[in-house]
Amino acid sequence: MLLLGAPPEVLGLIGLWIVFDGNLVHSNVDQRFPSWAHWFLPTVQLHNLHHAKDRRHQDSNYSGSTPVWDVLFGTFSHPDRNPLGPLGIENSPVPPGFLAQVWFPFRAQRTTPG
User: Fold this and answer.
1) Which of 63, 76, 89, 99 could hold 71 in an S-S bridge, CB 3.0 to 4.6 Å?
2) Does residue 74 lie within any of the structural domains?
3) Are 87 and 53 in contact (CB under 8 A)?
4) In total, how many domains does the chain have?
5) Per-residue pLDDT tens over the stretch 70-89
6) What is the pTM of this model?
7) Is 17 in contact with 65 (CB distance < 8 Å)?
8) What phi, psi does 52 have (nearest 5°)?
9) 3-state DSSP of the chain
10) What is the CA radius of gyration of the chain?
11) pLDDT tens for residues 42-67?
12) Number of Cβ within a 10 Å radius of residue 85
């Protein structure tokens, strides 16, 4: 974008927004927005649908900065119309518990041939 003439200050602000927004949607902060706001603002409820165990929700709400892209490309799922079930991956190999999850990539690397 810089090569196309975007001012460095704008790129800096976009970078700050991406970091802020990414942390916010991955947090467990209870965000209470009116129903219409989910069409325009990235919210934790939208992002949680993307991480639902229910496979049909995993292919939705990809865009991080604004849900407008998901609306335009048909991948938008509104949290008021799609109840959120458990999060995660069905039959996930990742173990429960913090320390087990920290150790998991190292253990998996040791047991993977190659």
Assistant:
1) 76
2) yes
3) yes
4) 1
5) 999 999 999 899 888 888 87
6) 0.64
7) yes
8) -70, 150
9) CCCCCCCHHHHHHHHHHHHHHHHHHCCCCCCCCCHHHHHCCCCHHHHHHHCECCHHHHCCCCCCCCCHHHHHHCCCCCCCCCCCCCECCCCCCCCCCHHHHHHHHHHHHHHCCC
10) 18
11) 888 888 888 888 888 888 888 767 88
12) 11
Which residue type, as a one-letter code, is found at position 71?
V
What tokens does 57 get?
């929700």
Which residues are within 8 A (CB) of 71 and not within 5 positions of it... i.e. 6 or more apart?
39
66, 70, 20: which is closest to 41 by C-alpha?
A: 66
Contact in structure between 46 and 25 (CB atoms under 8 Å) = yes
Assigned domain for 1 exists: no
Query: From the CB of residue 79, how many other CB atoms can be counted at a distance below 10 Å?
Result: 19
